[in-house]
């Protein structure tokens, strides 16, 4: 499993592209939960990519099991991305009770709009929130080039009580449709 002749990081990126962003380019039809048969994904990856050998179901399972960001779920022979979808159409996620506080890292430029409009999904299907400050800062650093990102404390308990719906992406990622500015507090 996870043979060294296949670049697993490249495979993970291809899987993300196929399951999170452009399934149609791979000829995939995802179900309402965003899942497709494991064999279908393997066939699509092999048809679309240049690999040193054919990708196998074991290679894909290795990426699912060993990915640091827990982007994928493999259940009953079907695979799906847990979060990060940007294609049109809605992926059905199961609503979940979030921790009282969540975190969001962003750029100074984006903060100007966020403090007025709140957190919006933008090009994704949901806003991404972090369970801890460190993860939020790491995410924010990708958006704030060359400086310290803006860290936002999200009053998830109050937002949920007011009707904001939350979904669990993985151990460290939570999702919400949108979070009004009144539930956000800039830290630092």
Backbone structural class: alpha+beta
Tally of helical segments: 6
Termini, distance in Å?
A: 45 Å
Which spans of ≥5 residues are poorly predicted at pLDDT below 50? none
If strands are numbered along the chain, what order do they take across the biggest sheet?
1-3-2
| Average of the residue pLDDT scores | 85
| Helix percent band | 25-40%
Q: In one word, what is the shape?
A: elongated
Strand content: 15-25%
- Named CATH topology of the largest domain: ADP-ribosylation fold
**What summary fits the major beta sheet?**
3 strands, antiparallel
Overall radius of gyration: 18 Å
Give the second-level CATH assignment, the architecture of the largest domain: Alpha-Beta Barrel
- The CATH first-level class of the largest domain comes to Alpha Beta
Helices and strands, in order, run as HEHHEEEHEHEHEEE
The domain count comes to 2
Verbal overview:
With 188 residues, this protein is an alpha+beta fold. The chain folds into 2 domains: 8-81, Arc Repressor Mutant, subunit A (Orthogonal Bundle); 101-187, Alpha-Beta Barrel (ADP-ribosylation fold), CATH 3.20.170.30. 33% of the residues lie in helices and 20% in strands. The protein contains 6 helices and 9 strands, in the order αβααβββαβαβαβββ. It has helices at residues 8-21, 38-48, 57-66, 108-117, 133-143, 156-161, and strands spanning 35-37, 72-75, 78-81, 101-106, 127-130, 150-155, 166-168, 173-176, 184-187. The strands form 3 sheets. It has a 3-stranded antiparallel beta sheet with strand order 1-3-2. Helix 1 (8-21) crosses helix 3.
């Amino acid at each position: 499993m996870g043979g060294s002749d296949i670049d697993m990081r490249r495979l993970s990126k291809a899987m993300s592209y196929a399951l999170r962003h452009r399934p149609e380019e791979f000829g995939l039809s995802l179900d309402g939960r965003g899942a497709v048969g494991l064999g279908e994904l393997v066939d699509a990856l092999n048809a679309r990519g240049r690999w040193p050998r054919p990708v196998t179901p074991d290679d894909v399972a290795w990426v699912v099991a060993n990915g640091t960001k827990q982007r994928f779920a493999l259940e009953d022979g079907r695979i799906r991305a847990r979060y990060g979808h940007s294609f049109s159409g809605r992926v059905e996620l199961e609503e979940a009770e979030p921790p009282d506080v969540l975190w969001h890292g962003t750029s100074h430029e984006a903060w100007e709009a966020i403090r007025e409009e709140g957190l919006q999904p933008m090009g994704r299907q949901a806003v991404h929130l972090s369970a801890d400050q460190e993860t939020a800062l790491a995410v924010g650093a990708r958006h704030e080039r060359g400086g310290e990102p803006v860290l936002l404390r999200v009053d998830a308990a109050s937002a949920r009580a007011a009707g904001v719906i939350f979904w669990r992406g993985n151990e460290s990622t939570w999702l919400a449709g949108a979070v009004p500015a009144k539930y956000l507090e800039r830290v630092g």
